[in-house]
Amino acid sequence: MSARVMPLRRANGLRLLDLCCGAGGLAMGYYLAGFDVVGVDITPQPNYPFTFHQADALTFRLDGFDLVHASWPCQHFARVTSWRGSQGNHPDLLTPGRVRLEASGIPWVIENVPEAPVRPDYLLCGTQFGLNIRRHRAFETSWGGGGDLVAPCWHRPGLLAFAHKGERAYADAMGCTWMTNREARQAAPPAYTQHIARQFLTHEGRAAA
Predict the structure, then answer these.
(1) Residue 119: C-alpha distances to residues 15, 45, 90, 113, 157 (Å)
(2) Is residue 115 a contact partner of residue 77, using CB atoms and an 8 Å limit?
(3) Rounded to the nearest 5°, which phi and psi values hold at 199?
(4) What is the pTM of this model?
(5) Edge-to-edge strand order for the sheet containing 51-54?
(6) DSSP per residue over 14-35, as a string?
């Protein structure tokens, strides 16, 4: 298991464990909300901007964190997988992952595509945060949602659509400027988890950054 620390890391007493972290799009949102972030992924993530451990997210120790975020792989549930291949070729990690989080006693967040079996305590789109993209993600939380409201989706003309031809512009519009094009294909905007983190802090009676 390898680990490294990048300069963006800051210690302020709040620790976030980012399971199946990818290149860190959602991790950045938690960082902006005031968390010290640690990421875990089974594959190397050379551009992850915080402390990183290459390890199995289903077995990595959860203790010592204020909040655990998990972006279990979505391919088993995503409609695009059935269009381009077979969903059966991708394991369901979400189901055993949720069981593990529920048993931990630690507050948690699960993020996935809207068609996944995730309770949409927060269903977010880029247009709700002033981003020029349409990208829906569902978030199930241990505290059940609530908190500050965001504006409804506004799928106006001119929004950037995800396509390989223009994926650099799409990645930058998400706010994932440090990633490669390929890494950004699996990412979601930091604005989503900056919002989620603030709802968690309000729920816990703690001040946001």
Answers:
(1) 24, 28, 21, 11, 29
(2) yes
(3) -65, -40
(4) 0.87
(5) 3-4, 51-54, 36-41, 15-19, 67-70, 108-112, 137-141, 122-124
(6) -EEEEET-TTSHHHHHHHHTT-
Q: Report which of residues 166 and 28 the model is more confident about.
A: 28
3-state secondary structure 137-174: EEEEECCCCCCCCCCCCCCCCCCECCCHHHHHHHHHHH
Q: Which two tokens stand for residue 19?
A: 């399971």
Structural class in CATH, domain 3-122+138-146+190-204: alpha beta
pLDDT in tens, 3-36: 444 544 454 579 999 999 999 999 999 999 999 9
Give the model's pLDDT for residue 153.
85
Average pLDDT over residues 67-72: 96
- Residue 68 β-bridge partners: 17, 108
Judge whether residue 46 has pLDDT over 80: yes
Q: List Cα–Cα distances, 159 to 133, 173, 180, 190, in angstroms.
A: 5, 10, 21, 18
